[in-house]
Write a structure and sequence with these properties.
single chain; 385 residues; alpha+beta; 2 domains; six-stranded antiparallel beta sheet; four-stranded antiparallel beta sheet; 15 helices; globular
């Protein structure tokens, strides 16, 4: 199998801007990370490794798009999220219940002075704000790595020190074949090397491996050769022939955002372009955030709403049979019409005003739709809807 491996500094392929933290969240989670590179070097199924100061902290897979393994953008779909979690600076950093509880238990059992800023951040934050599906979900293992990085940098917001290796497939094959092969290669790789940022059941301690060895491991896992196992693997494990059970617990693969994106993956380009523009606009809006649920749907959540910690002001679902997005809100018909939209139906949910975002609207008026959505956020903050 033909493979291409390239290395990238995070500062060369993404941007970081401080935008202010969400009300009730961690005060230092105040940055928006965005991919600034695209093109053939960043598409296609493959394996990647993330390093901090040349130390391996995470390995993962990228499968391209569900029906087209040669498409997508590994920076936007994976790397910006990893940097957001490993710095703990992502504005939309989210925790599962289990991850949050593990962090609390960690501070109850042991802590150092270097943890003070982070611990104080958790003490000042609201659990109900931190525990949410945001598309940038962290794990307890990533939290531990981020805590160390935070201590080393004094909490500085920076992309410096982070880098990636990306080994992508450059061969013919069907999407199911390639996706299956890459997934199997990831499991094989994680039997050989255990980065401290990966969530791996019954993991043995991570070893320090340099980038040249990691490059070889990535290529060997995808190429199917029997590479020597790093010295960190306990001899007893090797002699017993035991095969570790690799469970896909990483949130990028299993979270609500993944299910929503999987649902719209087969949708026309106008739908995907609109969702991308919307998430970028919300990331630049104070106290507004994109959340996801298992419906699956995308929600715009407003924080600091009068009398509440937060409030969902918009929900958006893809309706494949009708080839449209269904937007639910409490925007009055006059506000909708002011933005070129209409109140198409009264539903039975809390957000009962239903608007059909057709492909024609998404293609011709994406900016107007986004302005209407941000208007819903503004009105909610005022207590007007």
């Amino acid at each position: 199998m033909a493979l291409v491996t390239q290395s990238y500094r995070a500062s060369d392929v993404m941007d970081m801007q401080q935008r202010g933290s969400i009300q009730g969240s961690l005060p230092f989670a105040d940055c928006a990370f965005r991919a600034n590179r695209s093109g053939p070097d960043f598409v296609g199924a493959g394996l990647y490794a993330c390093f901090y100061r040349n130390q391996l902290i995470y390995v993962g897979k990228y499968l391209g798009m569900r029906d087209a393994w040669r498409q997508g953008n590994v920076i936007a779909m994976r790397w910006v999220k990893h940097i957001g979690t490993f710095t703990m600076r992502a504005r939309h950093l989210g925790f599962s219940d289990a991850a949050y509880d593990a962090v609390v238990a960690h501070y109850q059992q042991s802590r150092t002075e270097a943890d003070d800023a982070i611990q104080n951040g958790f003490l000042s934050a609201d659990r109900c704000v931190l525990v949410r599906e945001t598309g940038c979900m962290t794990t307890f293992r990533r939290f531990l790595v981020a805590s160390r990085i935070h201590a080393e940098t004094g909490g500085e917001a920076s992309l410096e020190g982070f880098s990636f290796l990306y080994t992508r497939v450059d061969a013919d094959g069907t999407t199911p074949e390639l996706r299956e092969r890459v997934s199997a290669a990831e499991a094989k790789l994680l039997q050989r090397v255990h980065p401290e940022g990966n969530t791996i059941p019954n993991a043995f301690p991570p070893a320090r491996v340099d980038q040249s060895e990691v490059r070889r491991l990535l290529e060997d896992a995808l190429g199917g050769s029997q590479a020597p196992t790093p010295a960190s693997v306990p001899p007893a494990l090797l002699s017993s022939g035991q095969v570790m059970q690799i469970i896909p617990t990483e949130p990028e693969d299993t979270g609500a955002e993944a299910r929503f994106l999987d649902q719209i993956e087969a949708a026309p380009a106008a739908v995907q372009d609109f969702i991308r523009l919307l998430t970028e606009a919300v990331a630049n809006t104070p106290n507004a955030e994109v959340n996801y649920t298992d419906t699956p749907d995308l929600r715009i959540r407003s924080y600091g709403v009068q009398g509440r910690r937060f409030r969902n002001v918009i929900t958006i679902e893809w309706q494949p049979s009708a080839q449209r997005l269904l937007m639910r809100s409490l925007l009055p018909d006059s506000e909708l019409r002011a933005h070129g939209l209409s109140l198409d139906r009264i539903g039975g949910r809390v957000l009962k005003h239903e608007t059909f975002l057709t492909l024609d609207l998404l293609g011709t008026k994406p900016d107007d739709i986004i302005k209407a959505i941000l208007r819903a956020h503004e009105l909610a903050r005022r207590g007007s809807v």
